[in-house]
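ugh ok fine here u go
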Amino acid sequence: MTDCIFCKIIKGEIPAKFVYQDELMVGFYDISPKAPVHVLVMPKKHLESLRSVNDGEKDLMGEVILTVHNVAKKLGIDKGGYKVVINNGEGAGQLVFHLHLHLLGGWNKSPGWQV
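structure:
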């Protein structure tokens, strides 16, 4: 998809602060954080939303979940607790139509933020 901002970030056409990259996944900081740590984790493969996922993406979706867990560990928020949010469709607040998971945490390090 040529107009997808996340595809452009993945291709390096738009800068982002990456915390994770491999052949299938990326993770980068959200530019409008809703928590002390707010990272977007997503497959490089363009899938519009959970509605776009089919049986052929079972392994890919497992990789997404494992990547979220590994990024949480890398950022040191795994033990204190974190949220994972998927906005699925416009009615749920999805703004960019490339499947992505919001990894939110770090509240114990920044008491001014609320869960």
